[in-house]
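Researcher: I'm preparing a figure for a lab meeting and need a structural model of a single chain. I don't have an experimental structure, so a prediction will have to do for now. The sequence is pasted below. Please return the structure as tokens so I can convert it later.
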Amino acid sequence: MVRLKRGRNTVIRPELYVQETLELWVIDLSWTKIVEIEKPNIKDVVLIQGLPGLGLVGKLTVDYIVTELKLKKFAELYSNNLMLPDGKAGVIINMYGVFELPRYEFFYHKTPNDDLVFLAGNTQAVSWAQYEVSEKVLKYLIENFGVKLVIAACGTVARGRDREVFIASNDEDLLKEWATKYGLRISSEGTITGAAGLLPGLAKLYGIKGVSLMGPVGQIYPDPIAAKLLLQLLDKMFNLNLDYTKIEVLIQDMRKRAEIIRGLVRHARAEVGRREEREEGREPWYYV
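Model: Understood. Here is the structure written out token by token.
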């Protein structure tokens, strides 16, 4: 639905020494709908987001927690700003032939010390709508439950540091505290793109502390090894009591596949080398 937003703006025209008040009409083409399935008894929540991104680290992390703890979904967010991975509008078909709209999903989990909300999804918002969608998420949770902390789980490129989790925050004191307490490496300089940076970034505008926790992405994709590091960290922070059996199986499977691919690459390179050697020893087919 197209909505027209009406506003007023004062323009000063120095050449006439007068002020003109202009009416501004802005066409808003965005559409976002939050479907609430139930109203859980939670308050002052810790929001933990894990969406598709580098190495699928954030998505693997949150999806694993949701599955292992059998968390209950209480809301879904739909938007015309949630596109398919190729940037087109459409639906996603699962392995059984059932399709669904791109969406964000809200799950909750209560611990003795914290009420946790996990934000999962099968896509991310398009780049020009990241602010709007992230703010919709924040406002929904703030207005209905209250939010005391925002955590974004994601991946980062960190060659040679495959055992370290990186941290960045919108609050310097929290950054130093967690880096020391949990043995995290502070991410200095650079950028965090997408919702992994914007959600905790926007949280500061609402007086909420925000953190990005980044697992080091290696040479396999998706990267369950980096996801496991984040799982162990979140487990330690919030006493989730996770079972890591399934992700260990996934790690071993991905390592086997990676080794097969490396073997194929080595074979292809060797074959190219042998072909070049044969070409060097062959008489040219032309005369000069």
